[in-house]
Design a protein that fits this description.
With about 1450 residues, the protein is an all-alpha fold. It contains 65 helices and 15 strands.
């Protein structure tokens, strides 16, 4: 108590009083000599003045404080003696108080009595008075005889100052008066004082109320705290203005648990509306003294009500106002912003204090965040608090990492949340930088790409927001990742450094030495990473006028070393590094921190160095065709990337040789005969300029390839000895790409100089190979394959070059080239099928050779395997087709990248001799199509059906796409969109199975664009894509009308039907990949999302969508896409349409959209899906798609239990009563082959539904208990129906599913339902009994399955048995505990449950055969007619009997 009082006095002295005195007063609070002539001393005959003076205090007038010449205790004792010994005692007390009242009528004298007395030292005095003395009023309150009267005087005086305004240096009389009552040694009538103060609160203005309430903890005695606290809490409900002082006072009082919870709830309600400066006080009270039991509930409510966006809004408003006002106002606004930021920092200091000093707060906060399921419910607050706990509580770090790892892939903690935290609360999170760095490093080690991306975002935001020390730590960490050798970490770290060098060049230059050290660890870098590294170093070395020569020297040294190497890998690295550095050197201008630094005139030395570098690269590549092709590709990439930004001298230097080289190496004049000996006779094909009589050129492909093929070893050695450049067909496409990019750069996009190459023919051979392949030798077949690969890559580059030409004739030629591509692909498929083990020539040179090699014999083996599979399936049993391990291992059913239905595979195989999907596996050997190629999609679609039915097609629509060309383009578009917009985690292939570098083969040009650029291109394509999709819709609608809904009608063109189905599927996939892009949730892309949705909405309401809100645009787009539901041709399209609608509906989800999606999914499930051959769709892909659609239906339906019961009680009995190859009439997709799919989804969803029921609590009302019991009753009934289906469908997958999810269901029942039964048994006895009886039937059947698994000794099934039996045993003992809890343990009895098989037949063990105890029951004494029941599963090993016990109730 002593120390507490001293602290309070100091506080009162320093904070409340001294701060309000003018400077002249402050200087007088010190010891001083007492002079003889004092000015301002109160001199009168008042008994009060005389007695005070005789006791040792001199009263002063004016602004001088009262002087005290004796110790405070001496003064009180002396005055008390004077009063008691006075002849007129006790009347003298009244006169004394009257004198005091007269004295304090003067405001100055009253103020002096309320302020501390000034100690005085007289001449010759040896004992000094204490340096701090109380006020005269407080000293008088310490005298028991005077205290009641003085209290009355002060409280009567208080109303006089109700409406006084206190200036900057004015005296706050009400606060000084209230302060007199604090920390008194003794209060004679404490209750009366408190009662009067509370009465004063009810009539006082707000400032005085504030002072009185906050002073109560220092005035009250311990015995009064609870009573006064309850009275003060009532004020909280009546007046919100007093919230902060009341909570401040209550946090210092001793509250009982009930009152604390009540006040905490009241405080929780006002959190969203409280002022920012008052928020820390409110939060401090809420977090004050939380019990461990209530911690999670309190924290969950707090994080729900506390929204940091309300703290940010004032900051944004103030900053926006400051831009509009003059400079003085701007500085004022800045101080207000700073004050607001300080309030937010104070708020987190309060939370940090609670986390550090209150046990269980950190665990409760983590648990509250972990329990939050909805994505939109996660806030910036959650992220900052997790960082705070990670910094403060070292024991919780692993737990926080686990929570974030789980939340990030689900989209609960998106990167936008992280950006918002750094942007708006950098002052707060700077204190947590060590944790940010630690988490970022940990996340980059993750196998999940979403988590890795989040870690990279942490690095970028930390570098941008923090000071130089933090920046240096970030760069050091990134360099460590790059040098660590992990491919994923290296990629993402280089990407981060690339972003930093682009956005914060001047900041990163300071740490260039760190980055340069990566050159010592380039051994483990792949070509793409080398390109990134040298781009970063080039930007740092050449970005300023005073260039960093030491970085340049190191780069040149490494590049020369690599180029001179004979190892292909090092030469490849040298070429990429050299051209990347050349790009930085040759850049004409550069933006640096908003300023444009022109370099129009490069120094002669600079140009000379660049020329030497390019000459060196060119010379080192001449002897290697692959190196030369890479050199051409890198130069082309450089021109494309630095479009309009390359120095003209350098561009001229590059172009001078490329034009000559291409013409000399690959182009010859068209002549009737070709000289030379070749593997095949030369024939000029694919000439689009046959009307031109003279001057026609031809690409000399076959002669070059033949020369290269026949004399590979001799010619190469001869050429190398002569020092001449080797001319190889591999350089054809790269050389042309460089030529056309140089031409467009030099002629402002014009292609007139090289437009003859669009229509010129190729020197090939007769490609009528039907029936001839078997007669060719292996070398000839492989030569033909190589010829087709080179031809296809030539045409792909031609399409890349001329796709944007607007001339109709040019457009027509481009479309013809697309037709040539599709024709050649069919021929190539046939040749590849006849050439097992063939490895194609490389077409992509910026990857390692081994990365691009296809699996040997992939085509032939797969084809044979598929034939064998079909044969095996036809001979198997009715349920064998469903017996595959994917049922358990891949329940999500995500589709592979390039899916086609079984019909498409069969049709394509008949046509080309090789499945289409196998040809796509060779995509690494085809030249990449540019994004600009997809502008061809703006052309119309030409089909036989449309020509037959619409002969009035306008003549101007000459340029039109065919279905095969449309499939080709859409397939490539989908691959590109999926690669760049969809994170790898969302795909079926595991992230690290093939390596990230392999995944990027064929997308090197695409990866040089940002996802925003790709999304922008895709949005621009939406109109033509909508046109094509509507054409598909009309085609299939018309087809169904003509054939009365029959798929395999006589008028159906099977080949065209298959192509159109593929088009429909790819169109839906393209839409889904675009709208599933996570970037649409970022604020900067909101306009792009609006424009995309507007395209779809305009199809329904043209011209009316300009001013629609985002929600309305989403609604219109949803309805537009919903219209396609009646024309989808196959189940895969139906699934893709459903997934597309889900993606649209998630922005945001409305209940009506959820119902529509559930209804649509059910419609597709209840529809018959037939192939053109007349058979039902089947196979593993159909099963995977069915699994996904079923999950969609269950997740979106409003009543999962009703949906499960409907399928199991209606659909399954129909299937059972049908023929062996029959199906359910209600659910035609439910067949004997697909039953395991339905069964797994229903069991999984039922178990999830059970886990979503909240656990029973003692506080639940009878109605709530009854509602939960009814829910559990329906759940257990559905579970019983599903478990009993195993008696009919007893295949291995069904048994495995039942054992797995049966255990999970019993565990959920134990955890969530049994607490409910504990508290509801007495009130709802019959309902509880019925529930347990139904579940007991299911557990008994599960026990029979365990016995069945043992008999058949199936390892896959018996693995589930121990855990299931353990859960069944726990269930029985838990029922027994529930009965004991409700004092009904006599209702529990035990019997012997025998092991039986699925059909209920007893399984005879050795013991049972010897003893044969039968079905005897060992009954315990029973007095109560109600009995509990359950199953006890004995342990398998070590038990005397294999039989299990069971207790039952009736």
């Amino acid at each position: 108590m002593v120390s507490k009082r001293k602290l309070s006095k100091s506080d009162a002295h320093g904070d409340s009083l001294i701060a309000e005195l003018p400077q002249t007063k402050k200087s007088r609070i010190s010891c001083k000599e007492k002079t003889s002539a004092e000015v301002g001393v109160v001199e009168n005959n008042n008994i009060f003045v005389q007695l005070i003076k005789s006791a040792g205090i001199t009263l002063n007038a004016g602004e001088r404080q009262n002087d005290i010449a004796v110790d405070q205790a001496t003064f009180q004792k002396k005055l008390c003696q004077i009063l008691r010994k006075h002849p007129f005692y006790p009347r003298i007390v009244q006169e004394f108080v009257s004198g005091l009242e007269t004295h304090i009528k003067d405001r100055d004298q009253f103020r002096n009595c309320l302020l501390p007395c000034a100690p005085v030292r007289g001449e010759g005095m040896r004992n000094l008075v204490h340096s701090y003395c109380e006020s005269l009023i407080k000293l008088l309150l310490g005298i028991e005889t005077l205290q009641p009267a003085i209290i009355t005087v002060l409280l009567e005086k208080l109303p006089e100052f109700f409406f006084d305004t206190v200036g900057t240096f004015g005296t706050n009389f009400p606060r000084l008066i209230v302060n007199q009552f604090k920390w008194l040694d003794k209060i004679l009538d404490s209750k009366d004082l408190v009662m009067k103060l509370m009465q004063m609160v009810s009539v006082s203005p707000a400032p005085i109320q504030h002072d009185i309430i906050t002073s109560l903890p220092e005035i009250l005695e311990d015995s009064q705290q609870s009573e006064v606290a309850r009275e003060v809490s009532q004020l909280l409900k009546r007046d919100n203005r007093l919230t902060v002082p009341i909570l401040d006072a209550l946090s210092s009082l001793d509250l009982d648990a009930g009152l604390l919870a009540e006040v905490r709830q009241s405080a929780m309600i006002i959190v969203p509306a409280v002022k920012l400066e008052d928020l820390p006080v409110v939060i401090k009270f809420i977090l004050h003294n939380i019990k461990a039991v209530d911690a999670v509930e309190v924290i969950s409510a707090l994080r729900k009500n506390l929204d940091l966006s309300s703290c940010i809004l004032p900051l944004q408003m103030l900053s926006s106002q400051s831009k509009l006002k003059s400079q003085p106002q701007t500085s004022s606004s800045t101080s207000q912003v700073s004050s607001s930021q300080n309030c937010v920092k104070l708020l987190f200091d309060v939370i940090k204090s609670a986390v550090r000093f209150q046990k269980g707060i950190s665990e409760a906060w983590i648990k509250a965040i972990e329990n939050t399921v909805c994505v939109s419910d996660h806030k910036v607050l959650d992220l900052i608090v997790l960082l705070l706990i990670h910094t403060t509580n070292t024991k919780s770090r692993k737990q926080i990492e686990r929570v974030l790892r789980n939340k990030i892939p689900l989209g609960c903690v998106p990167e936008q949340l992280l950006q918002s935290a750094f942007r708006n609360h950098s002052l707060v999170i700077k204190d947590y930088f060590p944790s940010i760095l630690s988490l970022a490093q940990t996340f980059l080690h993750s196998a999940d790409p979403c988590v890795v991306s989040f870690g990279s975002c942490m690095y970028k935001q930390a570098f941008a927001a923090f000071d130089s020390y933090c920046q240096q730590e970030v760069v050091s960490a990134l360099v460590t990742h790059v040098c660590g050798g992990n491919d994923v970490e290296m990629d993402i770290s280089l990407d981060v450094l690339t972003d930093l060098v682009t956005l914060h060049t001047s900041s990163l230059i300071r740490y260039a030495t760190f980055v340069k050290n990566i050159l010592d660890y380039t051994e483990k870098l792949n070509p793409q990473q080398i390109r990134k590294l040298f781009y970063i170093l080039g930007e740092l070395a050449f970005s300023q006028r005073q260039e960093d020569s030491y970085i340049q020297d190191d780069m040149h040294m490494v590049i020369r070393k690599w180029l001179s190497s004979t190892v292909p890998k090092y030469k490849q690295m040298g070429i990429i590094g050299a051209i990347t550095v050349a790009g930085s050197m040759a850049a004409k201008r550069r933006k640096e921190d908003g300023c444009s630094l022109e370099r129009t005139q490069q120094s002669e030395e600079h140009c000379r160095q660049l020329s030497i570098l390019l000459d060196l690269v060119s010379y080192c590549c001449e002897q290697s065709p692959e190196a030369l092709a890479l050199y051409y590709d890198e130069l082309a990439n450089l021109i494309e990337k630095q479009k309009g930004n390359l120095d003209s001298q350098i561009l001229e230097r590059i172009g001078k040789s490329v034009v000559e080289d291409f013409s000399n190496d690959f182009v010859v004049d068209l002549t009737p005969a070709v000289d030379g000996v070749h593997l095949f006779p030369v024939k000029s094909l694919y000439n689009l300029d046959e009307d031109e009589s003279q001057g026609t050129i031809v690409i000399n492909l076959l002669p070059l390839l033949s020369q290269n093929w026949l004399g590979k070893s001799v010619d190469e050695n001869t050429t190398r000895n002569q020092g001449k450049k080797i001319v190889s067909p591999e350089c054809l496409s790269p050389s042309f790409r460089l030529l056309r990019l140089y031409t467009t750069e030099q002629h402002n996009g014009s292609m007139e100089e090289i437009d003859a190459l669009l229509g010129c023919p190729l020197h090939l051979t007769d490609l009528e190979i039907e029936g001839k392949l078997d007669s060719l030798a292996k070398q000839e077949r492989e030569f033909l394959c190589s010829l087709l690969f080179h031809s296809l890559n030539w045409f792909r580059e031609v399409v890349n070059a001329f796709c944007q030409q607007q001339d109709l004739e040019m457009k027509g030629k481009v479309l013809t080239r697309l037709q040539n591509i599709t024709e050649l692909q069919n021929m190539l498929g046939k040749c590849l099928a006849a050439s097992p083990g063939y490895v194609p020539p490389r077409a992509i040179f910026d990857c390692e050779a081994l990365e691009a090699a296809p699996t040997i014999n992939a085509v032939g083996l797969v084809k044979k395997k598929k034939t064998g599979e079909k044969k095996q399936k036809s001979e198997g049993s009715k349920d064998s087709s469903a017996d595959h391990s994917q049922m358990e291992e891949n329940p999500e059913g995500n589709q592979p990248e390039a899916e086609t239905t079984q019909l498409e595979k069969d049709t394509t195989e008949k046509k080309s001799g090789i499945p289409l999907v196998q040809l796509q596996s060779y995509h690494a050997f085809f030249r990449e199509l540019d994004l600009e190629v997809f502008t061809i999609l703006h052309c119309g679609l030409l089909t036989k059906s449309i020509l037959d039915s619409e002969m009035h097609t306008e003549a101007r629509e000459i340029v039109q796409l065919g279905p095969a060309e449309l499939v080709f383009l859409l397939d490539d578009l989908c691959q590109k969109l999926e690669h760049i917009l969809i994170p790898p985690a969302a795909k079926r292939a595991p992230f690290l199975k093939q390596g990230k570098a392999c995944r990027k083969i064929g997308f090197s040009h695409l990866c040089q664009r940002s996802s925003q650029e790709v999304a922008q291109c895709a949005v621009e394509l939406l109109k033509p894509l909508c046109n094509h999709m509507e054409n598909m819709h009309n085609y299939f609608q018309a087809l169904m009308t003509e054939n009365q809904g029959v798929v395999d009608g006589p008028r159906v063109d099977i080949q065209e039907h298959q192509l159109m189905s593929s088009c429909y599927q790819q169109l839906l996939q393209a839409f889904r990949f675009l709208f599933a892009w996570s970037g649409f949730s970022q604020r900067e892309n909101s306009d792009l999302l609006r424009s995309a949705l507007k395209v779809l909405a305009d199809r329904l309401k043209p011209g009316e969508t300009g001013f629609l809100l985002l929600e309305d645009l989403i609604s219109e787009s949803f309805h537009y896409l919903l219209n396609f539901q009646h024309s989808v041709p196959n189940f895969q399209c139906a699934l893709t349409l459903t997934q597309l609608l889900i993606v649209i509906a998630e922005k945001p989800v409305a209940s009506w959209k959820k119902d529509k999606i559930a209804s649509l999914a059910k419609q597709f499930l209840c529809q018959s899906w037939m192939q053109l051959s007349g058979t039902r769709e089947k196979g593993s892909q159909f099963s995977d798609a069915l699994h996904t659609l079923l999950c969609v239906y269950m997740e979106h339906t409003d009543n999962i239990l009703k949906a499960v019961e409907d399928i199991s009680s209606v659909g399954v009995p129909e299937l059972i009563n049908s023929a062996n190859d029959g199906y359910s009439s209600t659910y035609p997709t439910l067949t004997r082959q697909t039953f395991p799919v339905f069964f797994q989804v229903m069991m999984a969803q039922l178990e999830n539904s059970a886990r979503s029921i909240s656990a029973g609590k003692p506080s639940d009302s009878s109605e709530v208990q009854l509602e939960k019991l009814l829910h559990w009753n329906m759940t257990v009934r559905d579970f019983h129906i599903l478990v009993n289906l195993v008696k009919v469908f007893d295949s291995r997958p069904v048994l495995s599913i039942c054992l797995k999810y049966g255990r999970l269901f019993v565990e959920a029942f134990l955890k969530l339902a049994m607490p409910l039964l504990d508290y509801s048994f007495k009130k709802h006895r019959e309902d509880v009994q019925s529930l347990l009886k139904t579940l007991q039937l299911s557990t008994r059947q599960l026990h029979h399955m365990c016995g069945h698994s043992k008999i058949h000794q199936d390892l896959g099934l018996t693995n589930h048995v121990p855990l299931l039996k353990k859960s069944l045993e726990q269930f029985v003992y838990r029922v027994k505990a529930m009965l004991a809890f409700n004092h009904c343990q006599e209702a529990f009895w035990v019997g012997i449950l025998k092991n039986r098989d699925l059909q209920g037949e007893e399984i005879l063990s050795q013991d049972s055969e010897e003893n044969d105890p039968g079905e005897g029951v060992s009954q315990l004494p029973r007095e109560d007619p109600a009995e509990g029941e359950g199953d006890i599963s004995g342990s398998e090993g070590g038990s005397k009997h294999n039989d299990d016990d069971e207790e039952s109730s009736e």
